[in-house]
Amino acid sequence: MAEQYERYVGGTPEVERVIFDKLARDLMRVQVKIRKRSRAAGIERAFHAKAVLGVENARLRFRQDLPEDLRTGFAQPDAEYPVIVRLSNASGVRQPDFAPDLRGAALRVQTGPDHAHDLLMTNFPVSHARNAREFVVFAQAMAGANSNLRKGIALYAKLPLALGWATAARMRRNVTAATGREVRSLARETYWSRGAILWGDAGPVRYRLRPAADAPAAPPASRSDPDYLGHELAARLARGDVVFDLCVQRYADAWSTPIENGAADWREEDAPVIPVATLTIPGQDLDTADARAIALQIDQLAFDPWNTTDEFRPLGNLNRARKAAYEAGSAHRRGHCFITPMPARNVVVGRFLRPGFRALNRVVPWHRLPTWLGLLNIEAIRQVLRRDNLIDTEIREVVPKAHPVPPPIDESLRVRRTYDGTYNDLSAPTMGALGSAFGRNLPPVYRPSLFDMPNPVTVSRELLRRDTFIPARSLNVIAAAWIQFQVHDWVNHKRYPAGTKSVEVPLPSGMTWINTPGGAPETVMRFAEDAGVRRAGSTDPPTLFGNTASQWWDGSEVYGGDETVAKSLREPTGGAALHLEEGHLPAGPDGIAITGFRDNWWLGLSVMHTLFAREHNTVCEALRSQYPRMDEDTVYHTARLVISALIAKIHTVEWTPAILATELIDIGLTANWSGPPKNWLTHLGLWLVDAHALTGIPETLPDHHATPYSLTEDFVTVYRMHPLIPDDYEIADHASGRTLRTLGFNDVQGAATEPLMREAGLTNSLYSLGIAHPGAITLYNYPRALQAFERDGEIIDLSVVDLARTRRRAVPRYNDFRAGLHKPRLRRFEDLTADPDTLARLKDVYRTVDEIDTMVGLYAENPPERFGFSDTAFRIFILMASRRLQSDRFLTVDFRPEIYTPLGLDWIERNGMKSVILRHCPELAGFLPRTASAFAPWRPAMPDGHVRRD
Question: Phi, psi (5° rounding) for residue 675?
């Protein structure tokens, strides 16, 4: 019904929502500016900061003669409800009551245990702004204008430049008329809703609150008492009740009673005023401890006109904008969400620097520049990526809907990670949580006609299959295990159960495939299809997919992704420790270790999970010792925080610089965690380009960069690093260097893993992985074992699955992918590789360079010197790596001793991968690299006095 009265900005609710979300962020910046100008201790309300009255015992009683057509919902004859009342000055600054200002009334009518209606009004009949844009521009201009000079500059210079002279003049007239009156008592003021609301089947109304006809007169306004309005109300209530009439004006037509124009008056001759109810604030003593406590509690409430039911839904542009603005503003004020304004110098310098580096990079790529200049170049690239390559995929309501008053947040959610990733962002509880959708860095390209073009099996056989192992000699296999350990924490697409809904890839002529153990040969390769997420009302094939892992860096691969799993992994007695059997993970009925994430299980994962389960238990012991009064549940959750942050630190400052082994990356990633080096040139550059990078991310505020946090389908694509996995393994004794067993991948995975782990032990397993090289991330190096791999009742070629799923998830092909990340397009195959054999195979498999699969292109691309993967993949990395830290409340604003404990923060500061390994396997001290991370090749032992050779 509401739609017949409204006109959406941009033509649709979806377009309008994007515009209003930006306006909401602009209002949050206004709050920050007000705080700075007024030197407030915290973020205040953007408007109505100073409360004059807050009581919870008022009553609203509807009239017995309520017109028949206005009797709807809670509005019934003689119905009476308790009401919370807040009267306030309208300014966002706490200024004296005698300063020119508007006044506001906010009512919360409690119509049932779970139902309330918020009514918000101001003591002038119309808004100074016709719409949300004018409202926000005015707020921006006036923010912090706490002197006559600043107000004059705002009204007569900033406002006309932003909105034009005619609009600015009209707004000044309204503001002057509204704020120029002398206000003697808030009990004698009339308050108007300005905007309309739906009143059931009666249609739109505007409402107003006017003082009862017999309200006592007020004394003259004080020019010396800054709080005279509050004192006057207190004296009035000490003598008796304060009574108002609640009235409505009915909608007549779009001309005389417009819905979308907040600056238009509904004249009484067009829309007569109809009294519908009486508001009574009972006489009381406001100068008691109880009254002051209640007033303080009410001052913390977030009033919102959308706290209602759809029957009384707010209408019009300003009200629809309020939905985004009130939610964001109140969340910002409460410390539930944050905004980080960019300094003006960064904006100005960035406008020159980004095109400058773009021109320079046509001649000299960023990785060939001097280190300090390369760092600034990467920062400039990241700013462009943040602007252009964060795409919001969240599913929201199409048409704004009313909602109940949000319940208060459980205090425990402020100080611990939840089991499923909810409430990391307190203002958007489901953001990044288990089940939330993957985002996008590039617009999806859904082309079903090319799902099997060229045949992914042919692509795999010609360009991916490993004939000869190509080692990555700067790394060890622990690095390969580590990234799988991390990916299992971040991403896991939901799939249909095997055999219920499948992708079928046709096989090249003459080839067959056995799809299930013991099954018959078939002419198609079959595997479970991803379960897509459909938008409401859409019949298009889904290009949005849910993540069955929490997308935060929360250690869910160790701890589990829901409460049931997490609690089952703890000691049976209910203690804080994770359950281990003689230092090892217990095996389930299927032979796979019982831990937070059990898929694709092999020796490398078992080593990582066992190591960090032991580390968790050690942190628990330290917490108990340091804080003997801490209960076991708090010990568990604090230890989880510590382990999760330690894992994030290891990945940021150890694993990533190991696989991207350059000084520039080492400095950049260390700066992400602990700030840039003490180098005046680097500091000057960052001060000019991105002042927020002058400290490590843990010392900043959460920042989603205007897009709700999620990991992306493109991120998943660049982390397809299966070539790291070797096909052959040598299990060796660390003490003697003697080979204990030589095994293939199938002998170290699945149900075979845990018996081998117990036989070899954690120390020898770590040693064996530490002295061995992983595979290089390149063409012709996909593990043979993963090209005929049994998983979940299917036999799959994982390389074919990777190719097919990337296409079906609508990730752009390689040429579009790199162009979307601001790299030059390939014009011919020779632009990708100069290797004659690869060139011939690419031309044989693909008709044009635009058909090259993203994974193939990333593997074929010649990476920067000492890089373990391509520069194109690196673009996604520099965007998303810092985002995983920057968006996380527990790695930014709540990375503090009150949450982690001083011991916890010290543990994270002092430890890394080497110290974790040595705490649990001290025998390995002599084998770890002296000047490199634990992910670099270890020194092998020398059996029988002979030097060990690769």
Answer: 100, 160
- Closest listed residue to residue 749, CA positions, set 631, 887, 601, 638: 601
Q: Give whole-number Cα distances, 141 to 23, 423, 584, 591, 597, in Å.
A: 14, 34, 63, 66, 52
Tokens linked to 338:
């944050």
Q: Which residue from 268, 263, 273, 252 is spatially nearest to 203, judged by alpha carbons?
A: 252
Give the C-alpha separation, 428 to 406, whole Å.
12
Which DSSP category does 810 fall into? T
What is the Cα–Cα distance from 565 to 594, expressed in whole angstroms?
A: 10
CB neighbours (10 Å) of residue 157?
12
Identify whether 488 is a catalytic site residue. yes
Sequence-ordered strand ranges (E) for 230-345: 242-250, 273-281, 314-315
Residue 234, helix vs strand vs coil: helix
The one-letter amino acid code at 572 reads P
Contact present, 475 and 937 (Cβ < 8 Å): yes
Compute the distance between CA of residue 420 and CA of residue 431 in angstroms, rounded to an integer. 11
For 116, the token pair is 């309330």
CA 478 to each of CA 659, 863, 918: distance values in angstroms, whole numbers, following the listed order: 12, 22, 15
Q: Give bridge partners of residue 827 from the DSSP assignment.
A: none
Select from 479, 354, 314 the least CA-distant residue to 869: 479
| Residue from 153, 232, 148, 246 nearest 191 by CA | 246
The CATH class that applies to domain 51-130+167-324 reads mainly beta
- Give Cα 183 to chain centroid, integer Å: 45
Identify the H or E element spanning 57: strand 51-62
* Dist. CA 14–CA 789, nearest whole Å: 44
The closest of 744, 781, 854 to 472, measured between CA atoms, is: 781
> Could you tell me where the beta strands, DSSP code E, fall in 699-806?
728-732, 739-744, 789-791, 794-796
121 φ/ψ angles, rounded to the nearest 5 degrees: -145, 160
The answer to whether 256 and 208 are in contact (CB under 8 A) is no
At how many degrees (to 10) do helices 132-142 and 165-179 cross? Answer: 70
Q: How far apart are CA 938 and CA 404, in angstroms?
A: 59
Nearest to 714 by CA among 486, 379, 485, 438: 438
For residue 314, say if its preceding peptide bond is cis, omega within 30 degrees of 0. no
Residues in contact with 448: Cβ distance below 8 Å, sequence separation at least 6, in sequence order: 541
* Lowest-confidence region among 3-17, 571-585, 659-673, 815-829: 3-17
| Residues β-bridged to residue 567 | none
Minimal CA–CA distance to 146: which of 100, 89, 104? 100
pLDDT one-digit tens code per residue, 250-267: 999 999 999 999 999 999
How is residue 564 written in tokens? 């049931």
Mean pLDDT of 459-479: 97
Q: Rounded to an integer, what distance in angstroms lies between the CA atom of residue 196 and that of residue 313?
A: 9
Residue found under tokens 């055999």: 499
Q: Per-residue pLDDT tens for 936-947?
A: 999 999 876 454
- Please tell me whether residue 730 adopts helix, strand or coil conformation: strand
**Closest by Cα among 904, 627, 921 to 895:** 904
Q: Are strands 502-506 and 191-192 parallel, antiparallel or unpaired?
A: unpaired
Catalytic residue among 48, 128, 332, 488: 488
- 689-713: per-residue pLDDT in tens? 888 888 889 999 999 999 999 999 9
Distance of CA 278 to the CA centre of its chain: 45
Q: Which two tokens stand for residue 918?
A: 């040595």
Burial class (CB in 10 A: 0-12, 13-18, 19+), 277: buried
**pTM attached to this predicted model:** 0.92
Compute the distance between CA of residue 604 and CA of residue 389 in angstroms, rounded to an integer.
34
Helices H, strands E: what count in the chain? Answer: 29, 18
Q: Compute φ and ψ for 201, nearest 5 degrees.
A: -70, -15
* C-alpha to C-alpha distance for 206 and 198, rounded to whole angstroms: 9
Sorted by sequence, the CB contacts under 8 Å of residue 749 that are 6+ apart come out as 600, 601, 602, 603, 785
